[in-house]
């Protein structure tokens, strides 16, 4: 019988083609490879590292929302950043509970887990996949809006209006909820003692659903869609838009240097702040690509080579999850370091008060 433990953020997506074996005594007694040793050793500290990242990320994204929703801060770009902060906040919120239970209070292996915790993991898996996919396409929207504003400035203000930003976010939320529906039928919770190979274990576990057992292609198709397409395609789009934005900014900077003598200091200050804002948004986009592209590439190779998945990807799952969490937590640092308006608003709201 197929048995698969739902792992975590995007490792959960890759559980869609897991090796379908219960973590049994024979596996534990076999000589571990270097990758398996790395996975075991890192697993001892993964929960603690993720707790630190998640706690910082949850608090920082709450601060992002508070700052970005001030009346003078409301712009189409900041509206998208607010939606991104909410999605990142939700992504880390349930992971914090997951990491605390499975990596600190317990052990992410079969045996001794209650049905309540298994259903929590199942909900956590679906919830976090949905939220992270929303965050992915919010980031793509951010890149598209900035591309239009920088590269097509004449029509940028009209095309990138607050109304269009709200409509785009609404469409992404609805579309993501619909697209993720097939993912909700992948797994089910069972009692380990009811499994032919689980007689020596107590408690509950998560295995492939009846639909997956009857239709193998269902699981493979979802793996390719969520594990590869929904990773690689957004990264390609973000890389393209970022490259064009950066190239356009360099060309515009050369023109400003030639015309600087004719440009007033106020215009120069406006252009400088505009550039800092653009670089900040490009940094948000590129950091997303850096943390997501490796997982998409590894997932693609895993889809073509099952041995690669079992020996390499499965043992890097926790590290890849950490990259996702870091991406969800880093934006506050980027805003503070690269946006004068964000820093000033943050200081006025919090530092001055205390």
Descriptive keywords:
disordered N terminus; 354 residues; 76% helix
Please provide a written account of the structure.
The protein has 354 residues and is mainly alpha-helical. It has 13 helices and two strands. Helix 9 (216-259) packs antiparallel against helix 10. The protein is elongated. The protein starts with 10 loop residues before the first helix and ends with a helix. Residues 1-29 have low confidence and may be disordered.
Output the number of helix runs. 13
Mean pLDDT: 82
Secondary structure tally: strands? 2
**Largest beta-sheet details:** 2 strands, antiparallel
The largest sheet has its strands arranged as 1-2
Strand content: under 5%
Structural class, please?
mainly alpha
Shape: elongated
* Spatial gap, N to C terminus: 60 Å
Question: H/E order of the elements?
Answer: HHHHHHHEEHHHHHH
Q: Specify Rg, calculated over alpha carbons.
A: 23 Å
Secondary-structure map:
Elements: H1 11-14, H2 25-29, H3 34-68, H4 76-105, H5 115-151, H6 153-159, H7 162-179, E1 187-191, E2 204-208, H8 210-214, H9 216-259, H10 265-304, H11 306-329, H12 331-338, H13 340-351
Antiparallel strand pairs: 1-2
Summed up:
76% of the residues lie in helices and 3% in strands. The protein is mostly helical. Strands 1-2 form a two-stranded antiparallel ribbon.
